[in-house]
Write a structure and sequence with these properties.
The structure is a single chain. Helix content is 51%, strand content 13%. It is built from 10 helices and 7 strands. It has helices at 2-8, 12-25, 43-54, 61-71, 74-84, 91-101, 120-132, 147-155, 195-217, 231-242, and strands at 31-36, 57-60, 110-114, 139-144, 157-159, 166-168, 222-226. The chain has a 5-stranded parallel sheet, sandwiched between helices. It catalyses: AMP + ATP = 2 ADP.
Length: 243
């Protein structure tokens, strides 16, 4: 009854658009996809396109943990207890939260998993959980970009703190260097967008994920994307990989 009462307050336009979306998604095949790539590789650009094209839910483990804590689910309470003690959330707990999320109607056609697994142990635990549901990971999309290209992409980023408008010194410069086009206020660079911070993040990424890629390569499901190419070209590569 509670769910029905909530639906009564949903505007007609929202109900119709969701009904149309579900009808469009009904014939789509199920897909379970993992995205792997370093900071600035373009996953954030491609995720919404994949989600829309294949009717998948997008699972970012950091967001899911925060949501579980906010909703005070049993697993969320366990995660909060660990974080309050300054401890890392266990792999089993993260896999449990993913398992919970997969029961949502929006995940009925499958998922895009971003930011997990980061280790082979996590990959094995994820596979074991999916196996209990009779499922498996279908594809691992590996966003390959040279570190030098990432450095140019990331260290050139500038942000207007008030609005979140972003610029790039080479690819999308402001009209006046260092100044927001709209407000005339100064732009800033995020602390994470410096060459020093990027180098340590990339070192950690390569060390962590190389074994994970090797693990999934043995299963024959890794697709290497040339992610330094323009976004449209990367989208075409992804469509070909998933068709």
């Amino acid at each position: 009854m509670a769910a029905a009462a909530q639906l009564e307050d949903v505007p007609n336009e929202s109900l119709f658009s969701e009904l149309l979306r579900r009808m469009k998604c009904a014939p789509k095949p199920e897909k379970r996809i993992i995205l792997v790539g370093p900071p600035g590789c373009g996953k954030g650009t491609q995720s919404p396109i994949i989600k829309e094209d294949f009717c998948l839910c997008h699972l970012a483990t950091g967001d899911m943990l925060r949501a579980a804590v906010a909703k005070q689910t049993p697993l969320g309470l366990q995660a909060k207890a660990a974080m309050d003690k300054g401890e890392l959330v266990t792999d089993d707990l993260v896999v449990g939260i993913i398992d919970e999320a997969l029961k949502r109607p929006s995940c009925s056609k499958g998922f895009i998993l971003d930011g997990f697994p980061r280790t082979v142990v996590q990959a094995e635990k994820l596979d074991a959980m999916l196996e209990t549901q009779g499922h498996k990971v279908d594809k691992v999309l590996n966003f390959n970009v040279e570190d030098s290209v990432l450095e140019e992409r990331i260290t050139g980023r500038w942000i207007h703190p008030g609005s979140g408008r972003s610029y790039h010194s080479k690819f999308a410069p402001p009209k006046v260097s260092g100044i927001d086009d709209v407000s005339g206020e100064p732009l800033i660079q995020r602390k994470d967008d410096t060459a020093e911070v990027l180098k340590s993040r990339l070192d950690a990424f390569h060390k962590q994920t190389t074994p994970v890629i090797a693990y999934y390569s043995q299963k024959g499901i890794v697709v290497d994307l040339q992610a330094e190419k323009p976004a449209k070209d990367v989208t075409s590569q992804i469509e070909k990989a998933l068709s």
